[in-house]
Structure formats: C-alpha cells, structure tokens
TrEMBL record:
PANTHER family: AMINO ACID IMPORT ATP-BINDING PROTEIN, PHOSPHONATES IMPORT ATP-BINDING PROTEIN PHNC. This is Glutamine ABC transporter ATP-binding protein. Keywords: ATP-binding, Nucleotide-binding, Transport. Belongs to the ABC transporter superfamily. The lineage of its organism: Bacteria, Bacillati, Bacillota, Bacilli, Bacillales. InterPro entries: AAA+_ATPase, ABC_ATPase_HisP-typ, ABC_transporter-like_ATP-bd, ABC_transporter-like_CS, MetN_ABC_transporter-like, P-loop_NTPase. It comes from Pradoshia eiseniae. SMART domains: AAA (SM00382). Residues 2-236 form the ABC transporter domain. GO terms for molecular function: ABC-type amino acid transporter activity; ATP binding; ATP hydrolysis activity. The gene is glnQ.
Length: 240
C-alpha cells in the first residue's frame, strides 16, 4: 500500500529524513516510535504530501507521489490523517465537520454522506453529539470526531500522529479503543505513538526511528520485548 525508497527530507541545510526505505502492506498496522525530533511527524507528513520530499520515491496504492497534480490529489484522498491537536473546524458542528469534505471534495450526495456520518459517529460512540460544536466536547471526544472525519473520506490508509499525546490521561483509553477498532476492521495504518502497550497489542510491526533513520524494526512484540539496538534499549528504558 505504501512504498518508500531512499526517502530524504531537508529543511534548508537541516536533513531530518536521511534515507528511509519502508514498505507497508495493505491491512498492516505499523507503529512508529522514537524520541522527539527523530523525524516521525515529518515522515508521516511526506506520505500525504504535506511536506515535499527532497529525494527518493514514495508510492501509495501504486500511484507515485510526484509533481502531477492528479496524483497528488488522488493520494490526498486516499490517505487520511489524524493529528495530535484534533484540528476540528470550530465554527462547524460535529456533523458538519465530518460531512464537509465528502460533500464538497468528493461531490457525494449530502443525504448519503450524512447517513454515513451518523454511522461513523456511532462507531466512535458519539452519535448524540452530532449537533454540538467542538468546543463543547472533551479532548477525547474531539479526537474521536477527528477520526470519524478522516474515515468519512473512505481512505485506504490512515496516518495517526501522536493521536493521544494532547489528552488528559483518563481520556487516552477511549481514543486508543477507537483506533484499535479501525485497525481490526482491516485498515492500513501508520500510528506514531508513545503508547508502548498499544503498539505491542495492536501493531503488526514497530518501526523505531532515531535521528532521521530507521534504527530498528520488526514484529511489534519482538522488537519491544527484545530490542537489539542500544538506542532502542535506551529509548525503552532498558538498562544495558
Ligand atoms: P518528531 O515528530 O519525531 O518529533 P519531527 O519530524 O517533528 O520529529 O522533526 C524532525 C526535525 O525536523 C526536528 O529537528 C524539527 O525541528 C525539524 N523540522 C520539522 N518541521 C520543520 C520545518 N517545517 N522547518 C524546519 N525544521 C523542521
Ligand atoms: Mg512529531
């Protein structure tokens, strides 16, 4: 579903992605972990063209992410993203937040989109909030709306960038539970997270980034329980 070949990304003189090769199969759930500044967000942002790579190749669902506008538009539609800071539209109700892009970008019929939005709200446990504005919701509820909004575009891939990092601890669980449900339904997902238990239980594979490179990767349970590289051992708090 996603193929990255020797991907580099520079901001001015600063190289933050230093040659990443990564292939993600359809239906696979990959957790990306690593210290702050290691390039996790930048890597995700490159996959849906929020950042343009400096060199290398990214292919999403057989479509190369190059300069062709049609390709970029296609990939943006197929790749949903959920951010740390929810980013809901404050002047729209929950229902409007979810339906605006399917109606105006995908040009789908309003009634059908609204029916599907209600189903998605049920899935994330927020059906009764559909006419509320985001500011009336807790952080956990807002993040669940953000997930429903991304799913409403019927993406083939979902990218999550530390989706629970901005939440009070007691709200983390409800959001992880929704993400787990999406994973179990077979969605291809890349989840940047500090929640190691979540990574262990939900991810098929864990990718550990350090300093713009993939330092270690493998089956989640193996990599997290039995890390090989010194950097990953240190990151996980193992004494060597
Ligand atoms: P992570 O998500 O792992 O914390 P990031 O991808 O956010 O790491 O950042 C990696 C590096 O790239 C950091 O040194 C950060 O300061 C830098 N960086 C990220 N975005 C930009 C930008 N738009 N301009 C300049 N530097 C950036
Ligand atoms: Mg980040």
């Amino acid at each position: 579903m996603i193929e990255m070949v020797d991907v580099h990304k520079q901001f001015g003189d600063l190289e933050v992605i230093k040659g990443i090769d990564l292939t993600i199969q359809a239906g696979e759930v990959v957790s990306v972990i690593g210290s702050s500044g290691s390039g996790k967000s930048t890597l995700l942002r490159c996959i849906n063209n929020l950042e343009k790579i400096t060199s290398g190749k990214i292919i999403v669902d057989k479509i190369p992410l190059n300069d062709h506008k049609a390709n970029i538009a296609h990939i943006k539609r197929e790749v949903g993203m959920v951010f740390q800071q929810f980013n809901l539209f404050p002047h729209m109700t929950v229902l409007e937040n979810i339906t605006v892009a399917p109606i105006h970008v995908l040009k789908r019929p309003k009634k059908e989109v609204e029916e599907e939005a209600v189903k998605l709200l049920k899935k994330v446990g927020l059906e009764e909030k559909k006419n509320d504005y985001p500011k009336k919701l807790s952080g956990g509820q807002q993040q669940r709306v953000a997930i429903a909004r991304a799913l409403a575009m019927r993406p083939k891939v979902m990218l999550f960038d530390e989706p629970t990092s901005a939440l009070d601890p007691e709200l983390v669980g409800e959001v992880l539970q929704v993400i787990r449900k999406v994973a179990e339904e077979g969605m291809t997902m890349v989840v940047v997270t500090h929640e190691m238990n979540f990574a262990k239980e939900v991810a098929d594979r864990v990718v550990f980034m350090a300093n713009g490179r993939v330092e270690e990767q493998g089956i989640a349970k193996e990599v997290l329980v039995n890390p090989k590289s010194e950097k990953l051992r240190a990151f996980l708090g193992y004494s060597s």
